[in-house]
Specification:
Number of strands of chain B: 12
Number of helices of chain A: 9
Helix content of chain B: 40-55%
Mean pLDDT of chain B: 92
Order of helices and strands of chain A: HHHHHHEEEEHHHE
Shape of chain B: globular
Largest sheet of chain A: 3 strands, antiparallel
Low-confidence stretches of chain B: 276-285
Structural class of chain B: alpha/beta
Strand content of chain B: 15-25%
CATH superfamily of chain B: Divalent-metal-dependent TIM barrel enzymes
Largest sheet of chain B: 8 strands, parallel, barrel
Number of domains of chain A: 2
Number of helices of chain B: 10
Oligomer: heterodimer
CATH topology of chain B: TIM Barrel
Radius of gyration of chain A: 25 Å
Helix content of chain A: 40-55%
Mean pLDDT of chain A: 93
CATH class of chain B: Alpha Beta
Strand order of the largest sheet of chain A: 2-3-4
């Protein structure tokens, strides 16, 4: 029989830090490390907790407003206890919280749209601070002959719940029959704007995003149903739509 | 035209909430700004442009929060390389971090206290050395506020001196932290400052704090600087010279006028002090 593997012993420093942080993450179940003043340890616990609470309340103001204070505080405590956020960058903490939500089962007394709403709330900041720049516009008329792509500052989104309408007075408990399609976009004034999209526009933008570099006409031909009664009308309407997206900078030359 | 060597005088901690009102019209009293790189790395858009505009006008120094230089989990090399890039982009004359840890395998985003032991000295000094090697420059390490000492084999002053010596790094001396610790751990703050390695102090931090009902002090950076801390700053200048000094204010930000009056108070103190060793505010590198 093999000998039991030798467990590496922790250095005193590592042990001290482990005891210390285990308490900070789970102050209701883990004892305060021996010899340390309980009042002062609670100061540390409070500082860690309130800092993360304040950051996350800033990232997710709508969720914060929908939850009772008690429930929101409990969710943050669970996040600190169960999730090891890795990013050193504060603006990325919201993304860590979304990972945490996506790995956990939404509780029965929590809104069923929690994860989708969190995602929606995080997109605005992500685009606001994105390092991508606006493309230089190409000459007018060129659009018909240019390979297209989606601006890195534009993101088409689809949600089961109408996350853009959710507020204290509107909290659907079931997803409606139709999904919500949105475009979030940072304009050339660096303001982030949201637009509701019809399904066809959403599909067009997704197709350009997944398969960039084709001509406008090619995307429209791909999207046109075979039995469309008026394919020319479809193409014309589609070209007008592409021009509008192009003028706003949502579509760019690939 | 600014140069990195123009890092002197009095600076202000730059928060996102005040940059919009500052970047086009920097008050004359503000000689430099300080940011946490972890708030600004990979930030583009309007905020990124505003920060770039600021660093083209006055020196921008950096004060990190997330490196966990005292932690036992591996150093985040990506973060260090991104900090290096950030320092280059903004020609930042200085990078500092805290003599603490924040990571237990995940981030706790706070400054947790190290034990004052030989083991911790060697551990943190070797990690500071690694960071300095990657950055290709010396960094400064800040004395933090601490509320408990997990283990005390030496005094705080001995601990700081040992780390600075072994890591061959600079010291960012936070006067408010000295005051807060002197109250919470009952020691003489002037004696403590006398024990600091004067020739290693790269710059100074000033801030306000919160006093709980029973006199226990929590270092919040959310209030005006109090008189005893001003007196301690004057004492420090008298001892080691009028080094560049930064006012930190992270919460409860008052009107700019109030911040500027504190900045001007720093500058008045700086002017009223002689340089005891005939040196000017020295370069951080």
């Amino acid at each position: 029989m093999d000998a039991a593997p030798i467990r590496p012993t922790k250095s005193p420093l590592a042990q001290t830090q482990e005891d210390f942080t285990r308490f900070l993450r789970n102050p209701t179940e883990v004892a305060i490390p021996k010899g340390l003043d309980p009042r002062r340890m609670r100061v540390y616990q409070g500082l860690v907790y309130e800092n993360i609470l304040s950051l996350l309340s800033g990232f997710f103001p709508v969720i914060d407003s929908l939850f009772s204070e008690e429930k929101w505080r409990a969710l943050i405590a669970e996040f600190i206890r169960d999730f090891k956020a890795e990013t050193p960058y504060f603006p990325k903490l919201g993304e860590e919280f979304i990972y945490f939500l996506s790995e956990r089962k939404t509780l029965e007394d929590e809104p069923p749209f929690l994860l989708e709403l969190a995602h929606y709330e995080s997109i605005e900041l992500a685009l606001y601070i994105s390092k991508e720049n606006h493309a230089t516009p190409i000459a007018e008329g060129f659009i018909h002959n240019a390979g297209l792509s989606l601006s890195p500052l534009a993101t088409p989104l689809s949600y089961h719940y109408p996350v853009h309408q959710i507020c204290a007075n509107f909290q659907p408990q079931e997803p409606p029959e139709k999904a919500s399609y949105l475009l979030v976009f940072r304009d050339n004034q660096d303001e982030v704007r949201f637009f509701e999209l019809p399904l066809s526009s959403y599909q067009l933008l997704c197709q350009i995003n997944q398969n960039p570099g084709l001509l406008a006409k090619e995307y429209l031909q791909n999207l046109c149903p075979e039995n469309h009664p008026e394919p020319n009308g479809f193409l014309q309407q589609g070209m007008a739509l592409i021009s509008t997206f192009y003028d706003k900078g949502v579509l760019i030359q690939s | 035209m600014k140069t990195p060597s123009a890092f002197q005088g009095a600076g202000l901690g730059l928060r996102r909430s005040i940059i919009d009102s500052l970047y086009e019209n920097i008050p004359n009293a503000i000689d430099f700004f300080e940011v946490a790189p972890e708030n600004w790395i990979n930030i583009g858009g309007r905020l990124g442009k505003q920060l770039r505009s600021i660093s083209e006008q006055v020196p921008l120094i950096t004060h990190g929060l997330s490196l966990s230089v005292g932690g036992v989990h591996p150093l985040d090399k990506d973060l260090i390389l991104n900090i290096k890039k950030f320092l280059d982009t903004h020609q930042a004359p200085l990078y500092s971090e805290h003599l603490s840890y924040s990571n237990d395998g995940g981030q706790l985003y706070d400054l947790l206290p190290l034990p004052f032991t030989e083991e911790a000295v060697h551990h943190v000094a070797s990690r500071i050395t690694q960071v300095q090697d990657i950055l290709g420059r010396r960094m400064a390490i800040e004395n933090v506020s601490y509320y408990v000492v997990p283990e005390k084999a030496m005094s705080e002053a001995e601990f700081i001196n040992a780390v600075v010596k072994e890591a061959d790094c600079d010291l960012l001396l936070d006067i408010n932290n000295v005051y807060v610790n002197s109250k919470n751990h009952q020691y003489d703050p002037e004696e403590f400052i006398r024990q600091m390695p004067a020739e290693r102090v790269a710059y100074i931090h000033m801030a306000g704090h919160y006093v709980e009902d029973d006199g226990f002090i929590v270092d919040t950076h959310g209030a005006d600087v109090i008189d005893p801390v001003w007196k301690l700053l004057a004492f420090t200048y008298g001892l080691i010279g009028s080094l560049p000094t930064l006012l930190e204010r992270d919460f409860n930000l008052p009107e700019m006028e109030q911040l500027l009056s504190e900045i001007n108070q720093i500058k008045d103190l700086q002017k009223s002090q002689e340089f005891p060793h005939g040196r000017s505010a020295h370069s951080a590198n």
